Amino acid sequence: MIDFNGLEKRFRAIEETEIGPKLLEAYASELLPFLGADVCYIIQERDEWTAAVLYSTNPKLTASYVNPTQFNDLTQSTSFFLELDFVPRRALKELLGVYSYVAGFRLRNYTFKGWIVVGWTKQPAFSASDIENALYRLGDKILICTLSFQQIALDQQYRFLFGVVPQAIVLINEAEDINWVNPSALELLNLEAGDLRPSSASLSVGMLQLRNRALNKDTINQTASELISNPTFVSKEWIWTFPEKVLSVFTKPIFSPYFKGRIWLFNDVTELYLKHQQLSDANLEIENLISVIAHDLKSPLSTISFVFSFLPMIGPLNDEQTESIEHGQKTIKRGLNLIDSIVYFNSLATTNQPIETEDIELDNLIDMVVDSFLAQAYQKEISLHIERNHPPVILHSDPKSLVRILDNLISNALKFSPFGRSVHVQTELVNHQLRIAIKDEGPGISPDDRVKLFKRFQRLSAQPTNNEGSSGLGLSIVKSLTEKLGATIEVESIVHLGTTFRIVFPSVSLSRSISPTIPEKY
Hints:
Elements: H1 4-17, H2 21-35, E1 39-45, E2 51-56, E3 65-66, H3 69-74, E4 80-83, H4 93-96, E5 101-108, E6 113-120, H5 128-164, E7 168-173, E8 178-181, H6 183-188, H7 200-213, H8 217-229, E9 238-241, E10 246-256, E11 259-268, H9 270-314, H10 319-350, E12 358-361, H11 362-371, H12 374-379, E13 383-388, E14 393-397, H13 399-416, E15 422-430, E16 433-439, H14 447-450, H15 474-484, E17 488-494, E18 498-505, E19 510-513
Parallel strand pairs: 13-15
Antiparallel strand pairs: 1-2, 1-6, 2-3, 4-5, 5-6, 7-8, 7-11, 9-10, 10-11, 12-14, 14-19, 15-16, 16-18, 17-18
Helix pairs in contact: 1-2, 2-5, 9-10, 10-15, 11-13, 13-15
EC number: 2.7.13.3
GO molecular function: phosphoprotein phosphatase activity; phosphorelay sensor kinase activity
InterPro entries: BphY/WalK/GraS-like, HATPase_C_sf, HATPase_dom, His_kinase_dom, HisK_dim/P_dom, HisK_dim/P_sf, Sig_transdc_His_kin-like_C
């Protein structure tokens, strides 16, 4: 009777003396005398038509690759085969041409796919089940070895890839209490040199000490509290500042059948942060200078306007003089409007004052804003339409900011629309969101203008149709205010057919419905 315990003892003895690829060779070599076989092959399947001879006890073999079709045919329904009058096909002649008795065992695993094949020149003395049992045991060893090799290779790849990057990387596997860090993380967290697999305790101490050294520790701890309470937390723009450096910290959970944990990435952004601070300081100085200049210009313009308004009182003016004064007053008004826009935009850019929200009856507010433009629309024979497809709603937002947004959008629609066209102010509820759209029939927005649409002081290719003024700040203000209100802005435009600006408020901004009735279109 075959002694499988003895085979296992020999395998264990091999494991005490051999490592790496030599271990696989020693297993196969031990199987030969155990089964009284003459040859043993370990064959790894690469694809349907190609297999590599991973190991062979046949010193005369020269082939490195074979066609595995015949092995596939023999192991279609079972993992084991034993052929007592084996006739190899041409693809296997060099491997098994001199062996009349051949047995094989199919290995199917994500780590290794292939066959163990043994051959005898004389009929084996063991039963098919004993041979299958022996090959099965060797197959287990092959799979374990392969998995070990793959793990070693993967670990080496990790060490190389993460070892050369300047960022500090920490990988925590909570499921198995295994951690991995790269050399940059060792230095950052003050861990023991060379210990790329630190214990959870030492890693926690290193992370805590790093947090405690930060100048903005309180802000960091607030975000850390959110991370602790939310296993799916992903950090965004998490900055840790220190006296000597600034770190941008990114962390994200990793969940898979084989891994449950979190990855941390610490990126040194000191130089970038300092440059950003310098640019911010310089930008603030420029904004303050613009604001001062704007205020200083407002006073003389107001004085000139007063003088123009006083001139008709001195004596009668002819038509040319009256026209010149009116033109001057219009020019001054444009200048004052530009100054107001500059001052207002600077206040948005340089201050972070919270908005004052309240419940707004949306229909009443829109009616009020549209009414203020009726005279301007009348001058250009433009029809202003209000369209609603929902019951009256209460919008919880900042009315001053919303009025300014609508003022800018409706004003632009009227400025750029030709005479005799229509401008539509539409409100609708879609998927629990409120959408306020301003639609015109103007020249549309070209692709080149799209990229600079919301940038300040940008002059687009389209021009006002009645010599109206434009500060180049209106859409920048709309964009900033929209974001402050927690809404988004969408743009749809077709050249020569018109443009639609749409402000979308999320469902949380809607307080309640007032009435189930739906107002008719105006």
